[in-house]
Specification:
This protein has 213 residues and is α/β, with parallel strands linked by helices. The chain contains six helices and nine strands. It is globular, with a radius of gyration of 20 Å.
Length: 213
């Protein structure tokens, strides 16, 4: 009679899914639009900020943080942003860099913590949930850097693993946002082609408003 032994079956618990937040920069005052805050521009009958925040949520972001600046109280009163965390940037006139810093600071204050953040801009309605989802899928760890690309050129949204947040915030000045940081780390960026699913145009001038109709 032969004794047979079997290897114990070991199940490995799946690793926890990464927590990836969305960060929408929506503080701009629309200087070239005659001082019309971009967050409140009408789009399909509602404020533009609603569409931009919804695209981040539908693209898989766990929580969407929205940085407000120009007409912040009006945005709070008029826009429906259920489930979003609203962060004020009193220094919004300094440029996009101040809004990026304010958003990252709000993320750092979250007690649950996030592994990465997807940054998007309120004035790019041609970028939808599919592009957000594609860039989100590029996450590989807290040191990930990834960005959508259009015709080979880097654009939004941009994914920053949490290991990069301090460096991004330190270099976010004026209207440059994270441009300097990304330029210094270009070899580490995973570019995700979104040319077939999104258009990266901005709403900057009165002529651009036709794109919102």
């Amino acid at each position: 009679m032969t004794d047979e032994t079997t290897e114990p079956h070991v199940t490995t618990a799946p690793s926890a899914a990464p927590r990836i937040a969305g960060l929408l920069l929506a503080a701009g005052g629309g200087r070239r639009l005659g001082g019309r805050p971009k967050a409140l521009l009408p789009y399909r009958g509602r404020p533009l900020v609603e569409h931009a925040a919804r695209m981040l949520a539908e693209g898989g972001c766990a929580t969407v943080y929205v940085v407000l600046g120009a007409a912040a109280e009006r945005v709070r009163a008029q826009a429906r942003l259920p489930g979003c965390v609203l962060a004020d940037n009193p220094g919004w006139t300094e440029g996009m860099g101040s809004s990026l810093r304010a958003g990252l600071a709000a993320l750092d204050e979250d007690s649950g913590g996030f592994d990465a953040v997807l940054v998007s801009l309120v004035d790019q309605p041609g970028i939808g949930a599919v592009a957000v989802s594609r860039v989100r899928a590029a996450y590989r760890g807290r040191d990930t850097l990834a960005a959508a690309s259009y015709g080979g050129r880097r654009g939004h949204p941009v994914l920053f693993g949490a290991a990069h947040w301090a460096g991004v915030a330190a270099g976010a000045v004026g209207d440059q946002g994270a441009r300097g940081y990304l330029g210094a780390h270009r070899d580490a960026i995973t570019l995700v082609d979104c040319s077939d699913v999104a258009e990266p145009y901005d709403i900057d001038t009165a002529a651009d408003l036709a794109r919102l109709e």
